[in-house]
Amino acid sequence: MPNIAFVNGRFMPLAQARVSVEDRGFQFGDGIYELIRTYAGRIFHLDDHLQRLEQSAAAIGLSIVYSKSHWKAILEEARTRSRYPDAKLYIQITRGAAPRDHSFPKKARMSVIVTVRKLTPLPTDLREKGVAVMTVPDLRWGRCDIKSINLLPNIMARQKARSAGAFEAVFIRDGRVMEGAGSNVFAVIGGRIITPPKGPAILPGITRDQVIAQARESRDPLLEKGVSLEELLAAEEIFLTGTTVEILPVVQVDGKTIGDGRPGQTTRRLCRQFQQTTYR
Ligand code: PDD
Predict the structure, then answer these.
(1) How many domains does the chain have?
(2) β-pairing, 222-224 with 237-242?
(3) 155 lies in the same domain as 249
(4) Which of 1, 28, 135, 179 is deepest in the core (most CB within 10 A)?
(5) Per-10-residue mean pLDDT for the chain, 280 residues long?
(6) Distance CA 76, CA 43 (A)
(7) Is the CB of 244 under 6 A from ligand 1?
């Protein structure tokens, strides 16, 4: 089954997809993206992803030329061509190719790219046993709510965590928990589910929204409020959320065991409930 690309209006095998070396995404990281999953051939929360894409675009002064229905048609066609039931749909939009100059080019055409790749699920024992995370100073900029393709601090942080044997890096800013390098963070503290509030310092995760809605539906006490590093270390339970990790229990932070070292009860229930929403 093929990996597919869509580049500025044309579908092709991913291996044949090309953009200019003068693309501002390549030169400056001047672009935005979305990563969307399919479950059993169905695209998960597409409207929410498209809405966030529009917000990111507006925030960096790009206006997306495709309507939502056009996007849906492109993504459905990409998905159908790939024939992967479980796939990762990646959208990237950059300010296009132009001679290198920091200010916006007058005449560049945006580069609009979609790729489809097979999704390899996380090993089940990670979800069953939970993962370790490592805290790192948040060296990112002030607009982490924009899903920018500038991910250097995220990849440096993730690599640091992986080199230390941890699965994810968790950013700490001014003593407070922000989010993971590619995920949002939730903790169960004093019996309440707590996650840092939306704002310019974190990405408004689609999975995060879904988990909050789920918790509200089952009348779990849930708060969107700041979490200090001390509170995180003393939490009863911790989990990460994200398109690729879904809901992933955390059982160790900086080498300290969380709870009894196994995924907590609330986390496990939320995982089960989440799976029921994913058409599996
Ligand atoms: N990342 N925070 C950051 C910094 C992220 O990069 C992501 C997702 C999330 C979770 O968002 P969502 O639930 O919408 O996937 C939070 C994707 C998966 C990536 O960069 O590949």
Answers:
(1) 2
(2) unpaired
(3) yes
(4) 179
(5) 91 96 98 97 96 97 91 96 95 97 94 97 95 98 98 98 98 98 98 98 98 96 98 98 98 98 98 87
(6) 8
(7) yes
Structural domain including 157 reads 124-279
Least Cα distance to 26 among 96, 91, 89 occurs for 96
Question: Is there a single domain that holds both residue 90 and residue 133?
Answer: no
Q: Is the dihedral of CA 270, 172, 164, 156 positive or negative?
A: positive
- Within this chain, do residues 71 and 138 fall inside the same structural domain, yes or no? no
Is any atom of ligand 1 closer than 6 Å to the C-beta of 206? yes
Q: Which of 195, 203, 278 to mutate to test the pocket of ligand 1 (most atoms within 8 A of CB)?
A: 203
* CATH number of the domain that residue 266 is part of: 3.20.10.10
- Structure token digits, residue 200: 């310019």
Single pTM value for the model:
0.97
